[in-house]
């Protein structure tokens, strides 16, 4: 409202300025100076008002995405338990860069924080990054990660698919968390978009098996524009399955 007012004042000011100049050129220099004097003083007023509007607008923009959680691959500590544990123990949980903002997370869980959107980012130390954005309205720390709430992702086929798993709890029998799976069908046929395997519980598919270089938890995701056949990662030359070094959760909230 105030912005509109200021903009119209500036426009009115400019129209009368052009009118004044047209007149002044026909008369004398001193008449021009006299005519411009009140306009210069108006410009100072506009500058002051524009600065005030800028200050008002800047505050909410600055805090658009706030970091709530960082979970790191390969530390031996499961990301699902780090995210859902009732309290944070820095000595056992804050290892290898794992991090949680208790105040934001508690506010989200209690409903005191109005979470508009949630952003899950898969990132690696080379700077690769994939973002998933969810509608956070009415969610808690458990249920925001769902197919219905997904607003955008790197994958064009999620919306029209029927995933067999889509949730942070995931497939508990195999400790696959933050799991977006299109289908199971034996290790060689499993297809999906994202999986965080935390430990070996039952089956031990080659595609989620830890190594010296990549201990648990193992974060894999599709680097295609669609779901991927997880078993591709077993091939050393594969470029379709990405490995994230860490994942982050941000909220856009007030
Ligand atoms: C987000 O979810 C809420 C509650 O389900 C819904 O009312 C709203 O329209 C959704 N917003 C968007 C942008 O999808």
Q: What report would you give on this structure?
A:
The protein has 254 residues and is an alpha+beta fold. It has two domains: 1-61; 66-253, no CATH class. It contains five helices and twelve strands. The strands form two sheets. A six-stranded antiparallel sheet has the order 2-1-12-3-4-5. Strands 6, 7, 8, 9, 10 and 11 form a six-stranded antiparallel sheet that branches. Strand 6 and strand 7 form a beta hairpin. The longest helix has 34 residues, at 29-62. The radius of gyration is 27 Å and the shape is elongated. It starts with a helix and ends with a strand.
- Strand percentage: 25-35%
Number of helices: 5
Counted up, domains total 2
Structural class: alpha+beta
Q: How does the overall form come out from the CA principal axes?
A: elongated
In total, the number of strands is 12
Determine Rg (CA atoms, Å).
27 Å
User: Average pLDDT value?
Assistant: 88
Query: What is the helix fraction of residues, given as a range?
Result: 25-40%
Order of helices and strands: HHEHHEHEEEEEEEEEE
- Major β-sheet annotation: 6 strands, antiparallel
Distance between the termini: 21 Å
Q: How is the largest sheet built, in terms of strand order?
A: 2-1-12-3-4-5
The parts where pLDDT drops under 50 for at least 5 residues are: 1-10
Tell me which ligands are bound. Answer: 2-acetamido-2-deoxy-beta-D-glucopyranose
In short:
The protein has helices at residues 2-26, 29-62, 79-84, 90-93, 102-110; strands at residues 66-72, 99-100, 115-123, 129-135, 150-152, 165-167, 176-183, 191-197, 218-222, 228-229, 241-243, 246-253. It is an alpha+beta fold and 254 residues long.
